Amino acid sequence: MSRELLVFSPARVAAMVLRYYYLLRNSWPRLVELIYWPTVQMIMWGFITKFFVSHSDWLMQAAGVLISGVLLWDVLYRGQLGVSLMFFEEMYARNLGNLFVSPLRPLELVAALLTVSLLRTLLSFSGAALLALLLYRYNIFTLGLPLTVFFFNLLIWGWSIGLLVCSLVLRYGIGAESLAWVAIFAVAPFSGIYYPVATLPDWLQPLAWLLPASHVFEGMRALMIQGVFRVDLIINAGLLNLAYLLLSLGVFGLTFRAARRRGLLLNVGE
Predict the structure, then answer these.
(1) pLDDT tens-digit profile of 82-108?
(2) How far is CA 196 from CA 110, 215, 226, in A?
(3) Cα–Cα distances in Å, from 119 out to 74, 83, 122, 242, 251?
(4) Tens-place pLDDT, residues 2-61
């Protein structure tokens, strides 16, 4: 073995550190990610603490509501990842160029991604619901038919976010893939998963009501605590989902055409 390979070189270490510094400096998604996670955690748990401090009586009913919130949040999370991660698989394999020299159309690819996302989410949700039943003796299926409405509203919202993430990665390259993890949690503190929207500061509440998930989780709590199925909240969630899904499809279509025109489909890993 060469003697040089046995000698520890601080210069080589410094060279590699410099390389990673340049990668970080030239990728704004990676820079955002550095401060993103602790900020989101601090905001979310701050609002949870604030709510429970001022509503201690709510703890009497919190166990089932919190578990339902976790299970339904996973629908949104898995729905988004089911779209974006499958799309990334094609990018990792540099397969987009191969796919689109075939008769495959972008809308057909999107339809396939949404179908796979639905199947993955159903599998994930069923497994988590079974564990909740076995470990905590909580059966989320007692929510009945409204559970289906909650499920598909959150799934469609996840699809919209996933398609927007795919569009950004098409535009900025695989270095922006961290947005798949960042984007979904960006809306979490404002979605009212574990606390009502009223817990948020007044100036943030209008933003929260622009998110379909906020209407779904408010509807879930109304059903579980008050025994009332809020049709108005579900209609609002459905209309918002329709608008966001059409927007995300339009953005993906425009980004795809731009990527094909600039030859990016053949260099998506760069």
Answers:
(1) 888 888 877 777 777 777 777 778 888
(2) 34, 10, 14
(3) 14, 11, 5, 21, 24
(4) 555 556 667 767 776 777 677 666 665 566 655 655 565 566 656 666 666 666 566 555
- Measured between alpha carbons, how far is 86 from 78 in angstroms, rounded to an integer? 12
End-to-end CA distance of the chain: 35
**Alpha carbons 269 and 50: distance in angstroms, whole number:** 44
d(CA 171, CA 176): 9
Taking alpha carbons only, the member of 163, 181, 186, 172 closest to residue 251 is 163
H/E stretch holding 104 reads none
CB–CB of 235/176 below 8 Å? no
Nearest one of 211, 218, 216, 217 to 240, comparing CA atoms: 211
The DSSP letter of residue 259 is H
In one-letter notation, the amino acid at residue 244 is Y
Distance set, CA 118 to CA 5, 6, 50, 76, 146 (Å): 51, 52, 35, 11, 18
List Cβ<8 Å contacts ≥24 apart for 103-111: 106/252, 106/253, 106/256, 107/249, 107/253, 110/163, 110/249, 110/252
Alpha-carbon gap, residue 121 to 119, rounded angstroms: 5
The token duo for 145 is 């038919």
Question: Tens of pLDDT along 101-137?
Answer: 777 788 888 888 888 888 888 988 888 888 888 877 8
Of the candidates 191, 183, 9, the one whose C-alpha atom is nearest the C-alpha of residue 79 is 183
Q: What is the reported pLDDT for 26? A: 66
Q: Taking the model in full, what pTM does it have?
A: 0.80
Quote the CA–CA distance of 150 and 216 in Å, as a whole number.
6
